[in-house]
Amino acid sequence: MSKAKIYWILQTGGWSLFAAINIILAYLEENLTVYYLIYAVLVLAWFIISTHIFRYFILKWGWLEVKIKKIILKVFFCIFVLTISNFLTHLLFLVSLGILLSGDLDLSTIGATLVTTFFIYFIWTLFYFIYHYIERYNTALKYEALKNEIELNNLKSQLNPHFIFNALNSIRALVDENPSKSKDAITQLSSLLRSSLVINRNKLTRFTDELNAVKDYLELESIRFEERLRTKFDIDPESKKFTVPPLMIQTIVENGIKHGISKLQKGGEISLQTKVRNSTLFIKIRNNGQLPHQKLNGSKGFGIENTKQRLKLLYGNKATFKICNEDDNTVLTELSLPQTV
User: Fold this and answer.
1) Is residue 146 part of a domain?
2) The pLDDT of residue 159
3) How many domains does the chain have?
4) Which of 15, 38, 72, 312 is the most exposed place for a label (fewest CB within 10 A)?
5) Could you tell me the CA-to-CA distances from 169 to 173, 226, 319 in Å, in that order?
6) Domain range for residue 47?
């Protein structure tokens, strides 16, 4: 069930229950009339409308994304405004239906009505914020669980003995032939292992850091594949302003080499291109090879599925991911990520 549907069920159901309780109390006090029923329905509609408008501004101002202590005074002020508007609307309904009593304008009655209305709006606001904070907490738990799974898979693929064996063998072959290049390779391997072992505990990392990790990985692989691996970068300078999920681009590049280029006798090229438009980072990764149809149709393996899940947890519907066979010899992976503050 969608969040919007849940919201409207709770919104209409909760306020309808509130109206029903008032009608029952009026009946028990023998004050129930046709005019009171009309009044109760109008009050019900106004509570639904006014709280929905308040919800609109809560989302517009981003209050769910900040700590409550920073906005508590603003929230109480808005509840106060809602209380006053509700009281004036309440009087308008009574006058329009001709059921306004002189006692309704007593200071004690007005005070009690304002306090009660303020308390009702406060309870609605409290439940609304609590619901979203619990949801965000559950989302954070899901992210941490998925992050742990991704870390384990990255450690498995990048720190496995086969990878280290190949990298060290490649470096050893360079020690006598090209000592300077072998030193650079050792530095790159060290940097790559460090980024894998000490993965950033934040959900996002700077694009430039991710790009450096990708370049270190490709430099090491180029020692092993030599002329069979060609790389190409076309990076928009504005990309450095963005943050990306740690190791996500590197994982896509690694899969492109492992499942694409390494299987080609003549090797191939892997390219990384970025563009920035309308505060959105567009990433295109191409590698020679072909993606099997079962992978295109929703693989459950590491790579495609986990990338989609990470993006959904981090960005909701604001990020996109697509992978396809661009032509008979090229796999294209496309990402779009919104700019985060």
Assistant:
1) no
2) 42
3) 2
4) 72
5) 6, 13, 40
6) 3-139
Beta-carbon contacts of residue 209 (< 8 Å; ≥ 6 apart) = 195, 200
Q: Is the dihedral of CA 62, 67, 73, 75 positive or negative?
A: positive
Q: How far is it, in rounded angstroms, from Cα 86 to Cα 92?
A: 10
Is there a single domain that holds both residue 10 and residue 132?
yes
Question: Which span out of 158-162, 211-215, 302-306 was modeled with the highest average pLDDT?
Answer: 211-215
Angle at 160 between CA 291 and CA 148, to 5 degrees: 80
User: Distance between CA atoms of 314 and 239, rounded to whole angstroms?
Assistant: 18
Which of 136, 48, 36 is closest to 93 using CA atoms?
Answer: 36
Compute how many other C-beta atoms are within 10 angstroms of the C-beta atom of residue 103: 8
pTM above 0.85, yes or no: no
* Most confident of the ranges 26-35, 59-68, 73-82, 187-196: 73-82
Q: Are 330 and 264 members of one domain? A: yes
**Which H/E stretch holds residue 48?**
helix 34-60
Contacts of 303 (CB under 8 A, 6+ apart): 251, 252, 255
Instruction: Give me 143's structure tokens.
Output: 């992210």
Cα 40 to the center of its chain, rounded Å: 40
Rounded CA-CA distance 123/15 in Å is 12
**pLDDT per position as a tens digit, 129-174:** 988 888 777 777 777 777 766 665 554 454 445 556 666 777 776 7
